[in-house]
Amino acid sequence: MSLRIYNTLTGEKEIFEPIVPGKVGIYLCGPTVYKPAHLGHAVGPIIFDAIKRYLTFKGYRVTWVVNVTDVEDKLMAEAARLGTSVPKLARELEQKYVESMHALGVRTIDHMPRASEHIPEIITQIQQLIAKGHAYAVEGDVYFDVTRDSDYGKLSNRKPEEQFAGTREGLVQGNKRNPGDFAVWKAAKPEEPDDVKYDSPWGKGRPGWHIECSAMSMKLLGETFDIHGGGLDLKFPHHENEIGQAECATGKPFCKIWMHHGLTRFNTKKISKSDPEFEKVMSSLQLSNLLKAHPPELLRFLIVQSHYRSPIDFSDDALQAAKTGISTFYRLFERLERTTGADPYTATDGVEKLSDQPTNPAIAAVRDSILNSRLRFLEAMDDDFNTAGAIGVLFDIAGQINKFLDAARLETKPDEPARITAQAAGASLITLGRLLGLFLEKQAKPALADDGRTGKLVELLIDVRKMARTAKQFAISDHIRDNLGTIGIVLEDSQDGTRWRVE
RNA sequence: GGCCGCGUGCCCGAGUGGACUAAGGGAGCGGAUUGCAAAUCCGUAAUUCGUCGGUUCGAAUCCGACCGCGGCCUCCA
């Protein structure tokens, strides 16, 4: 089965064939670092991290680039408002962004180029555009001429001449030849700070919003590369303009596949900067706040649980449901460690490594069933990175392992072949999950904050409760369990004794 | 006004012409297990995929109309 990817450019799922066999170049539009990142900013990185993991698993050598736009009008305004400088603000927010991404398991980015460090490349590209008649300079500004680009609009299916008649408010014409033209270079104004004024053939100024992506992607990935991604809201104008600039400058196709992910919604609405509720909603959706309130893996799970092209409705209910769901895996991993004596997070050999030698039917059944699920997982991923379908398979596997463990009773009945099977099954599950960036490392279990004595006290209570149960003094035993429950200590009785955990 | 997308059980969410007698999760209910719970396992819900038509031997899947929701049209991940 071959990998198919939905390409916005053609509107179809296409069989993926890299430009250079065995190698894949990916560019994802990263943040403009002028405000703290919110949940929506994590969607692209999370799904592309999973995409890179999967492509790497399939044997491709992948180079993944995420830009940082650190010279831009909004940044200047925000820096002025905060009484700080643009570079200082940009570095601060970039640092926070990188930390958040790392916490979320996004660890496969190869390059994070900054716009401010690619001014020469940007200027070169603008010069190419001017030389070929695709851009023109007016009073220190340089504009891209959309009328000189015959297939401008092919990504978003727009024709510039038809575009502006019914638009909400007429476009500002200014010095532009056509209303649809856009700036590739902006002249500096005298009152602007010196650290955002760059020398250029057109005087001091700074790049327009789209040009940094064309310049940096081509520098790192070549003039034509495989995959360009970003949020659906960037399709027009940002990506359309990138294509225009890049292809007019080089005369070559810019990017083969365009992938756009869905937007995060809150109260069934997109988180939009023009929303009057924006600021209020923002603080609750700010990544740094969310990451303080919830395990990062939960947020990742929530995002990867729906298909990347669908919008994600974020709510406390959704978060709670995801939390309950993912705990199925955590419980299973604990159970595996308990019953096999091996930490599934460090295991490597999955069930596919178990021999086909005739063995007992239960072992053969769980092995075959997991092997089959593994295939379904890969099929889902091959179908336009259907992470939602893939997670469904993960739940199936967890059920299969639990069932096997229920039957094998390893807690009370040592059985080496069954133990090895359980261990391998767990490794298979974790390995597949890691293709989605899940189960990267063991979750810190909620624990009692103390010097160890409280734990001993809990053990003592469990011991007393056991005496009560033996004597059928259930009022006493239930009193102990119920009241420990109210302070977040959950008791679970089983054949091999009573376990407790903190919630 | 133009362009694009979506509408699947109580909720979320896969599936996009025949292997669908429509994954999976959450909630609910029933059962196994348990002294009772918890955890785990098993079972249970859409004769139906917004509505109405059409194409087809066959449609949740393709086409058309309509209804509803959302996105973009130079702030956006």
Largest sheet: 4 strands, parallel
User: How many domains comprise the coordinates?
Assistant: 3
Structural class: alpha/beta
Termini Cα gap: 43 Å
CATH superfamily of the largest domain: HUPs
The overall average pLDDT, rounded, is 90
* Order of strands across the main sheet: 4-3-9-10
Low-confidence stretches: 165-170
Count of discrete alpha- or pi-helical segments spanning 4 or more residues: 16
The appropriate CATH architecture of the largest domain is 3-Layer(aba) Sandwich
Tell me, what is the CATH class of the largest domain?
Alpha Beta
Gyration radius, to the nearest Å? 28 Å
Range of helix content: 40-55%
* Approximate strand percentage: 5-15%
Please provide a written account of the structure.
- The protein is α/β, with parallel strands linked by helices.
- It folds into three domains: 4-309, Rossmann fold (3-Layer(aba) Sandwich), CATH 3.40.50; 315-435, Four Helix Bundle (Hemerythrin (Met), subunit A) (Up-down Bundle), CATH 1.20.120.640; 453-502, no CATH class.
- It is built from 16 helices and 15 strands.
- The strands form five sheets. The protein has a four-stranded parallel β-sheet with strand order 4-3-9-10, sandwiched between helices. Strands 5-6-7-8 form a four-stranded antiparallel β-sheet. It has a three-stranded mixed β-sheet with strand order 12-11-13.
- Helix 2 packs across helix 3, helix 4 (119-131) crosses helix 6 (211-221) and helix 11 runs parallel beside helix 13.
- Mean pLDDT is 90; it is low at 165-170.
- The structure holds one RNA strand of 77 nucleotides.
